[in-house]
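Section handout, structural biology tutorial.
Before the tutorial, make sure you can parse a SMILES string by hand: atoms, branches in parentheses, ring closures as digits. In the record below the ligand is nicotinamide-adenine-dinucleotide, and the chain has 266 residues. In the tutorial you will relate the predicted structure tokens back to the input. Do not try to memorize them.
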Amino acid sequence: MNNILDLSGRVALVTGAGQGVGRQIALHFAQQNARAVIVNDYNGKRAQETASIINDLGTDTKALAVETDVTNWRAVNDMVHQAINQFGSIDILVNNAGNAGASTPEAMAKQKNFIDTEPEEWEQWIAVNYYGPMYTCRAVVPNMISKKYGKIVNVISDAGRVGEPRLVVYSGAKAGAAGFTRGLAKEISRYNITANCVALSTMNTPAVSSMTENEEILKKILTKYPIKRIGEPEDAANAVLFLSSDASSWITGQTYPVNGGYSLNQ
Ligand SMILES: NC(=O)c1ccc[n+]([C@@H]2O[C@H](COP(=O)([O-])OP(=O)(O)OC[C@H]3O[C@@H](n4cnc5c(N)ncnc54)[C@H](O)[C@@H]3O)[C@@H](O)[C@H]2O)c1
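Predicted structure of the complex:
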């Protein structure tokens, strides 16, 4: 059987690919022969590190680091148009950049109930988790339509499926991204473009390492997981790769949980 995950000839844009899940997605794409991977992050140093790791793999994939904040529409539009000018298309778009806010046990302990937050505080969750995917899709999809090909994968959180207390606005923003993906999928699937989500639970990434590296906290987290470990970036990247490849050509508008059984689908 041929390699059903092969991405030969494809150009991918991965947002927030400077570390964690996004970095591993970019590496998976290079290992599956993508023609180019645009490694986006608003931290340029991290993006450059990922691009260097890809270049060191010695594959034919061209890695291009681009420092852009996905919450800035004009900057996103410029990034996308420059990439299309350079490579001719963006065939795969992965919206991975995201932020749950607190990332240390101390900060988690200070997280507020929704009714204790002020509207001015909500923007930090809504901008990156909801507007970010919309900005990149708005910029990329016209090119995908003109090429009659595209794969879009939006990385959400199980918080967006089942809701999390004290992460209420984040839960809403991630659920919004999933709803947006479903609507968009119905509009654009006729152009041979699929759009899906992957919903993650606790991952072994820098975002939450100060909690997952604390034995006591980890033990408490794992009580909620049928599979008794947290997720590795590879677990997420495997699912994203599948949904970015032609192996998933009859799947659109769906959300795939990658979560160790944290929340169970019916
Ligand atoms: N880590 C978890 O436990 C967990 C759980 C559920 C969902 N998720 C989701 O998975 C995705 C990846 O998470 P991670 O754990 O790898 O995160 P991470 O914080 O380790 O890495 C995210 C990367 O995105 C970049 N980034 C953040 N905001 C950006 C912006 N506005 N523009 C461009 N780049 C930006 C950061 O600089 C960072 O390099 C996120 O969408 C996150 O919400 C993570």
